[in-house]
Structures are given as structure tokens and as C-alpha cells.
Amino acid sequence: GEDVEQSLFLSVREGDSSVINCTYTDSSSTYLYWYKQEPGAGLQLLTYIFSNMDMKQDQRLTVLLNKKDKHLSLRIADTQTGDSAIYFCAEVQAGTALIFGKGTTLSVSS
Amino acid sequence: GAGVSQSPSNKVTEKGKDVELRCDPISGHTALYWYRQSLGQGLEFLIYFQGNSAPDKSGLPSDRFSAERTGGSVSTLTIQRTQQEDSAVYLCASSLTATTDTQYFGPGTRLTVL
């Protein structure tokens, strides 16, 4: 497909792991990003991965990249209620702007 | 240091009026971007400035939209003869140099066209 695709909703319980998946469009994308948007707020950079990496870990966050399948995932360990937000996957190619998915709304219940 | 700032935070206007939205990028960032976030369309790229090069206007939805960047810093997005479908949150981002550098976003301007 031509769009960056994400599932629209994910609901988890506090303390569980959350996995948000994304399929991107272009195998030549150099960087892939995860942004977080809380209600009424702007976009906050969460983490990113360079295209020559398979995995990146940053505290509770783990990003996995499968270039063959153009699949990106974000795992949040020990999910907290403060993690409730919309998560956007984005790709960038040299000389272009970010191309975003529609966002995944993560709902965390206590 | 200061992040990307945008003003106003909210703007309500009447259909047919012109509006100007302002963006102050992070000091030292040479690349500046405008995006639009609306319910139906998600996050869309509008325009991109890089240094003194001609801007990439490929995302502008119509000729009612224009943007300029003065002195390589502050940018203004102008929407002429606003329509109700222009209602959205307009986000500005900046990055150090190229598009492959991390883009940092401002809080956005929520535009409502009545």
C-alpha cells in the first residue's frame, strides 16, 4: 500500500505490555519514528530507529524493525495509565517530510 | 533550551477571512516544516523550508495557502479566504539540518473556521 498503516485502537491493563504495530511504505526510508500525542498537546518524540538497525531499546520502550516486511513495532513494558495517548509511526526519506500513520490510540485501564 | 513555539494557540475566524499563523523554530535549526492535523486526514505535510533553498510546497492543498520564512528563522503560514474545511490543528516542526534529522514539534495552532 501507499500509506503508513497502524491499527487504530489498543486497550491494555496497567502493568501489561503494549505492542503497537506499523507498516511503512518505502524500503529506502532512512529513519523511522514513534511520536506520542497526549490529549490537547503537540507531538512528542518518543524514540526512533535508523534503518540499518533491527532493534532499539530505551528504558521501557523497545522498537523492532523488520525491513523485509517493512514492519515496525513499539513495545511498552509495564504500561502505566500515563502512557494513555495516541502513538504515531512516521517514516522519512532523504529530502522529504515525515509521512505519518493515522495513529494508534492506547487506552490503559487500572 | 526553548523548543518550537507557535502562536496563537487558538484562532477562531469567520469563513472568508485571512489568517496568519506563526512559528518560531528551535534556535540554530535550519529546516522548518508545517503540517496539518485534522480528524479526517490525520497528519499531513504542507511545506518545508531548508536554509536558503526554495521551499518544498508540494503539500499545500490549494493556492489559498502560502508560507514564508524570514531571515531563516521565524515562519508565517497564511491562509487566505478561509473555508470551513481549513479547520484543523496546524503544527510546526524544526530540525537541525536535513529532513533525516529528528523533527521537533511545537504545540500547534488550533484553527476554527465558522
What is the fold's blueprint, element by element?
The complex is a heterodimer of chains A (110) and B (114).
Chain A: E1 5-6, E2 9-13, E3 18-23, E4 31-37, E5 43-50, E6 55-58, E7 61-66, E8 71-76, E9 85-92, E10 99-100, E11 104-109
Parallel strand pairs in A: 2-11
Antiparallel strand pairs in A: 1-3, 3-8, 4-5, 4-9, 6-7, 7-8, 9-10, 9-11
Chain B: E1 5-7, E2 10-13, E3 19-24, E4 31-38, E5 42-50, E6 65-69, E7 75-79, E8 88-95, E9 104-105, E10 109-113
Parallel strand pairs in B: 2-10
Antiparallel strand pairs in B: 1-3, 3-7, 4-5, 4-8, 6-7, 8-9, 8-10
Q: Report the C-alpha radius of gyration of chain B, rounded.
A: 13 Å
Query: Could you give a short account of the major beta sheet of chain A?
Result: 6 strands, mixed
- Work out the number of β strands of chain B: 10
Strand content of chain B: over 45%
Structural class by secondary-structure content of chain A: mainly beta
Task: Tell me about this structure.
- The complex is a heterodimer of chains A (110) and B (114).
- Chain A has 110 residues and is an all-beta fold.
- Helices cover 0% and strands 55% of the residues of chain A.
- Chain A is built from no helices and 11 strands.
- In chain A, the strands form 2 sheets. In chain A, strands 2, 4, 5, 9, 10 and 11 form a 6-stranded mixed β-sheet that branches. In chain A, strands 1-3-8-7-6 form a 5-stranded antiparallel β-sheet, with no helix packed on it.
- Chain B has 114 residues and is mainly beta.
- Chain B has no helices and 10 strands.
- In chain B, strands 2, 4, 5, 8, 9 and 10 form a 6-stranded mixed β-sheet that branches. Chain B has a 4-stranded antiparallel β-sheet with strand order 1-3-7-6, with no helix packed on it.
- In chain B, 33% of the residues are buried.
- The mean pLDDT of chain B is 92.
- The chains are: A mainly beta (110), B mainly beta (114).
- Chains A and B meet through β4, β5, β9 and β10 of A and β5 and β9 of B.
